[in-house]
Automatic annotation (TrEMBL):
It is found in: Cytoplasm. The keyword Lipid biosynthesis does not apply. It comes from the Eukaryota. Its EC number is 2.8.2.-. The keyword Ribosomal protein does not apply. One of its GO terms (cellular component) is cytoplasm. GO terms for molecular function: sulfotransferase activity. This is Sulfotransferase. InterPro entries: P-loop_NTPase, Sulfotransferase_dom. Coiled coil: none annotated. Keywords: Cytoplasm, Transferase. Pfam families: Sulfotransfer_1 (PF00685).
């Protein structure tokens, strides 16, 4: 939710998300661009056993990037040697990608994305939500999550 908030703030093609408090309420109610996050995640999770769907979590990538890259390669039916794997780990680190105009969107027109509002590659840290959510918001989110995601066995890591 925090990442979407900052992305929507800098993306001039999307509606202004308003304040964090306004965005939080809109997000919880599924009234954001695209579709409700809960419905989106639940829908794909329910399809994972019928179709070839690979779930990756940013937290897992931060914790063990090599393992997660191997997971992607295996999912694609590829076998990577150690040298290639190590190079991919190096080139896809948050720090490296934040410097790369091909991934940091710094070359995108300011009429589309205003990086001075919020860079596309913002922090790359796990658990930053704790700097945004109030205790009441956290409780409200948890309650909505319990209701909307009932029966879903997906486990999110909220901090490392």
């Amino acid at each position: 939710m925090v990442s979407y908030f900052y992305f929507q703030r800098m993306n001039q093609v999307l509606l202004d998300p308003g304040t964090w408090e306004e965005y939080f309420e809109a997000f919880i109610d599924g009234k954001v661009g695209w579709v409700s996050w809960f419905d989106h995640v639940k829908g794909w999770w329910e399809k994972k056993d019928r179709y070839q769907v690979l779930f990756l979590f940013y937290e897992d990538i931060k914790k063990d990037p090599k393992h997660e890259i191997q997971k992607v390669a295996q999912f694609m039916g590829k076998n990577l040697d150690e040298t290639v794997l190590d190079k991919i780990v190096q080139e896809t680190s948050f720090e490296k990608m934040k410097e790369n105009p091909m991934t940091n969107h710094s070359t995108v027109s300011k009429s589309i994305r205003v990086q001075s509002i919020s860079p596309f590659m913002r922090k790359g840290t796990v658990g930053d939500w704790k700097n945004h959510f109030t205790v009441a918001q956290n409780e409200k989110f948890d309650e909505k999550y319990r209701k909307k995601m009932e029966g879903i066995t997906i486990n999110f890591c909220l901090e490392l």
